[in-house]
Each structure stands twice: as structure tokens, then as C-alpha cells.
Design a protein that fits this description.
32% of the residues lie in helices and 21% in strands. It has 12 helices and 17 strands. The strands form 6 sheets. The protein has a 5-stranded antiparallel β-sheet. It has a 4-stranded antiparallel β-sheet with strand order 1-2-6-3, covered by helices on one side.
């Protein structure tokens, strides 16, 4: 299974092509649209979310809401394009309007200008923008539907915003309530403190990041590989998560905490009862030796503060190399809720790739039969 995306932040549309989907997978388009709306939600979002209301249109690979086995292609139209046509149109436009040379620290601007031989950072930021992740949410929701047919579910929540951390441990079913909250947090007191912190940062022209926890329930053991490093499941998941804009750190299970404890405290003891192996703890986060072990997969990701600040940071003007204040594109104060939805989606797609690699199957019925026959 493979995903390719295309499109710019203020271009005509975002496009995705999913290859390798089996036939006879029922597609719920409204669920895709639901997650696209959730990606645009959350306390601390900016003005663009009021302009766009993302909806997916499937172009190929599906007939009567069922996959055909051919590539599934889709488009998400950028409604804001009409306001940008004069400076973004592929057929010809005014490239001297909306130029950006006061490069923003923390963005792809400067490095992209040098790498791609450009003089206007508009040609870099339009693709580097997190707007691209709308396509990955759409594709990830298709992957979620594929996995659900196997009894695999994905959820998550925000466990921290700009230092306001929730250290409580929650059951999978508890995380399902997170989307009902303005910051996707499960502790109301901590959420209120985090919202006040966001308000303070907004008043000062500043931004916030946070911590996101993603959970996967129902995946059987043995997905991934201990034989080929390129197929290790934890490597694939961490790569998918780190590919999301603004993510600067990922851990699985007890992660970095495992460096500070003894081996006797770090590992999950194994038991056998009623014909099944099980563990009473899950410090490994559901992955051992690069393979799923049948327990819940637990990942955490650190999102840095959004680097486009209203007050601007010190930088240079690329056209003159003179000191300047960074340019200000329309931005959010905190997009941690969007990141949570995006991370669920990229984890879903990475898992679907791993499942497809092991099970194959041209028809969804074959995939389900093969998965059902597996131990673990």
C-alpha cells in the first residue's frame, strides 16, 4: 500500500493517490469528511479554518462506495484558492505579489530556498505548509476503515500543552471522549490551565506546542519484522509520525523514561493462561523486537510551537542578507488538536501498510480470512 500526495497550501487543491488497496472495501466518505473537520478544530486555531471547510471528492478506484482494487484517487479543493488565484495560478500569475524573503526561523524557508535554487520562499512554504496534511488525514481515514474490518481501532488525546501536562494513565475507551473537548484533553482542570496559557501566548503574539498520545487497540502480534530492519514496525510508525510538520520527538511505551530505570522495572513479564500469552504491564508500548506483540500500541509525540509568530523573530532578508523581522503568514496560536488527528491518520496508514505487507490479498475478504487465521 502506498500514498502519494500533491498540492500547495494556496493552490487549487490537494490530491492523493492510494495504491494497493484491495477490492471490496466499503468506503465511508462522511467519516473521511468528519476527520477533515476535526483536523480544522481545536482551541487556538487561526482564521483560515473559517474560510475552508474541507470535503473530499473521490475521483477513481471506488464505485458505489466500494473499492475496485485499482488506485484510489481523491481531491480536496482549496476554497481559499479564489483569493490567491492571481499569485498562485499555474497557467500564469503575478509572482511579484505576496513574495516572502524575510525567512522565518523554524520553517523550511531558508533551507528550501538554498536547496531548490529559489529567491522567493513562497515557492517553498506553499508545499512545506501543514495544509498538506489534509490529504494525509483523508488517506489515513481510508486506512482506518481497512483496519477496522480486522478489529483494529485507533484513538488518541492531547496530554500536554506548553508545559501543562496530564500524567494520568487512561484506558483506551476513555480516549474516545477526547474529541468532545476543546483541546482534546481528558482532565478538565489541566485543560482549563492550558487554554488560559494559549490566551496569554496569543496576547503576546506567541505560539504553543504540546504532547499527543496515540493508541492502537486490537492489532495481533507479529506485524513488522525482527529479521529486516527496514520492516521494523516501530521504525515505520516513528517515521510516519516524524514526517508530520512540527513533530520533533517520538517515543513508544515508556520511551525516554526507560533510560532512567533498571531492567527489572523496564520490561513486561509474560504469562500464559487459557491458551493465550499475555502481559500485565505494557511498558514496551505494544512493540517488541520491531514487531507488534498483541498489546495496545502506545506512541507519544512532541509538537514544537508553531514557528510563524505574530510578533516575528529576528532573521535576515534573503534578497539583501540584511537583518530583518520574520514575515508573518496567517497562522494558528496552537494546532495541537489538528496534530492529534493527523497523527492518528498517519499511524493508521503506516499500520495498514504493515498489515498489507504481511497479508497481501487482492480482495478484502481474503485479507479478513488471513488475519482471522493468525495467532496472537
Amino acid at each position: 500500500m502506498k500514498l502519494t500526495t500533491a498540492g500547495e497550501s494556496h493552490g487549487k487543491a490537494l490530491i492523493g493517490i492510494i495504491e494497493g488497496l484491495p477490492s471490496n472495501l466499503k468506503i465511508d466518505i462522511e467519516e473521511i469528511n468528519k476527520y477533515l473537520v476535526l483536523r480544522q478544530s481545536g482551541y487556538g486555531r487561526g482564521g483560515r479554518q473559517k474560510i475552508e471547510r474541507d470535503r473530499v471528492e473521490i475521483i477513481s478506484g471506488v464505485r458505489n462506495l466500494v473499492t475496485l482494487g485499482s488506485p484510489l484517487s481523491f481531491v480536496i479543493v482549496n476554497k481559499d484558492y479564489e483569493n490567491w488565484r492571481r499569485v498562485m495560478a499555474p497557467e500564469g500569475c503575478d509572482v511579484n505579489e505576496k513574495t516572502l524573503t524575510k525567512v522565518r526561523p523554524g520553517h523550511a524557508d531558508l533551507t528550501g530556498l538554498i536547496k531548490y535554487g529559489q529567491t522567493d520562499a513562497r515557492n517553498i512554504l506553499e508545499r512545506a505548509s501543514a495544509r498538506e496534511t489534509a490529504a494525509r488525514v483523508a488517506a489515513g481515514t481510508v486506512a482506518r476503515q481497512y483496519l477496522r474490518n480486522l478489529g483494529v481501532e485507533i484513538s488518541g488525546y492531547v496530554s500536554g500543552v506548553c508545559g501543562e501536562r496530564d500524567e494520568n494513565v487512561y484506558k483506551f475507551k476513555d480516549t474516545l471522549k477526547a474529541k468532545e473537548q476543546p483541546l482534546f484533553m481528558l482532565n478538565e482542570e489541566i485543560q482549563q490551565r492550558a487554554m488560559r496559557r494559549i490566551d496569554e501566548l496569543k496576547a503576546n503574539g506567541d505560539t504553543a506546542g504540546g504532547i499527543i498520545e496515540i493508541r492502537v487497540k486490537g492489532l495481533k502480534s507479529g506485524f513488522g519484522s525482527c529479521m529486516r530492519y527496514s520492516e521494523k514496525l516501530d521504525a515505520a510508525l516513528c517515521s510516519a509520525v516524524m514526517s508530520v510538520q512540527a513533530i520533533k520527538g517520538v517515543e513508544i511505551g515508556c520511551g525516554f523514561d526507560s533510560a532512567d530505570i533498571a531492567g527489572s522495572e523496564a520490561h513486561d513479564e509474560i504469562y500464559f493462561s487459557d491458551g493465550k500469552y499475555f502481559r500485565r504491564t505494557n511498558k514496551a508500548g505494544g512493540i517488541e523486537g520491531g514487531m507488534s506483540n498483541g498489546e495496545e500500541i502506545v506512541l507519544r509525540a512532541a509538537m514544537k510551537p508553531i514557528p510563524t509568530l505574530m510578533k516575528g523573530l529576528k532573521t535576515i532578508d534573503y534578497s539583501t542578507n540584511l537583518p530583518a523581522v520574520a514575515s508573518n503568514e496567517r497562522s494558528d496560536v496552537c494546532a495541537v488538536c489538528a496534530a492529534e488527528i493527523i497523527l492518528e491518520s498517519v499511524v493508521a496508514f503506516a499500520l495498514a501498510e504493515a498489515v498489507s505487507l504481511r497479508l497481501g490479498g487482492d480482495d478484502m475478504r481474503e485479507v479478513i480470512e488471513r488475519y482471522t487465521s493468525l495467532k496472537g
